[in-house]
Design brief:
The chain is of the alpha/beta class and about 260 residues long. It has helices at about 5-30, 30-40, 60-65, 80-90, 105-110, 135-145, 165-175, 195-205, 225-240, and strands spanning about 50-55, 70-75, 100, 115-125, 145-155, 205-215, 245-255.
Length: about 260
């Protein structure tokens, strides 16, 4: 039986409160090479503008990636501890134009109505939601974008286990990510990869699709990553990435 919505999101919040200080080490850092390569391919859609919104910003890896392009940045998350880490990053970069908001994301999207953002990012959030909520969430996101605004999302998607090439499986088994765990014992939130066709449909119903790309999460073996790490990750995604377990979509708000 599906748990009540409040408990679903409260479990998610508790989890992120507990793991916030280690999140970058366990989750963000091992994915940095792959993400740098991935988002570089979407950089042409990110034009200097006035306002950016980062939805479910966590420790701020997407906020920090694109904040320099915009004069005002809003970053929202329901976890105070995750936002604390994001604020540390912003301070270290002397970013003073970022407004961090601690709030339930769905409540924020439901309450805000002004179409004022030029660029909105949503990375690794939608798969935390019950699937039935996702179409409405994406619709509400598009309501906040200015005409011709850009929406960038990236989410894990469902693939068969055997669809992951054995070369990638073996490489990841020996990676740093396979050896890095949280020290805190936290009850993991309810989440699951999304159906790729469903995700594309949800976005295409309200926006014009600009680019869709899939890739595999492939992790380095060394810290800092070696030249061999970078080359191997790049080559494996070039060869196998079209069947990967992560889907990234750039879309534009339809003129209306």
């Amino acid at each position: 039986m599906q748990e009540p919505a409040h408990e679903h999101f409260e479990k998610d919040r508790r989890y992120h409160e507990l793991i916030a200080q280690e999140y970058d080490n366990v989750v963000v850092s091992p994915r940095k090479i792959t993400n740098d390569m991935l988002f570089k391919q979407f950089s042409r859609f990110v034009k200097p503008g006035h306002r950016m919104l980062d939805i479910a910003c966590g420790t701020g890896h997407m906020t920090m990636r694109f904040a320099n392009f915009f004069s005002e940045v809003t970053a929202i998350d329901h976890s105070k501890a995750m936002l604390t880490q994001a604020r540390y990053k912003a301070a270290s970069k002397n970013f003073k134009h970022i407004n961090f908001i601690e709030r339930d994301v769905l409540a924020y999207l439901a309450d805000e109505t002004e179409d004022r953002f030029d660029f909105i990012t949503c990375v690794g959030f939608l798969h935390h939601l019950p699937a039935g909520q996702i179409p409405n969430v994406i619709t509400n996101i598009f309501k906040l974008m200015r005409q011709s605004g850009i929406f960038l999302l990236s989410e894990p998607i469902k693939i068969q286990q055997e669809a992951t090439p054995s070369l990638i499986q073996e490489w990841n088994r020996n990676s740093l990510a396979a050896k890095t765990r949280y020290s805190a014992q936290a009850e993991e939130p309810d989440e699951e990869p999304l159906d790729s066709a469903f995700l594309i449909e949800c976005v295409s119903n309200v926006g014009s699709l600009l680019k869709i790309q899939r890739n595999f999460e492939i992790f380095p073996h060394h810290s800092p990553p070696s030249y061999w790490d970078k080359l191997t990750i790049k080559l494996m995604n070039k060869i196998y990435g079209r069947k990967g377990n992560v889907m990234t979509i750039a879309s534009r708000k339809i003129q209306g």
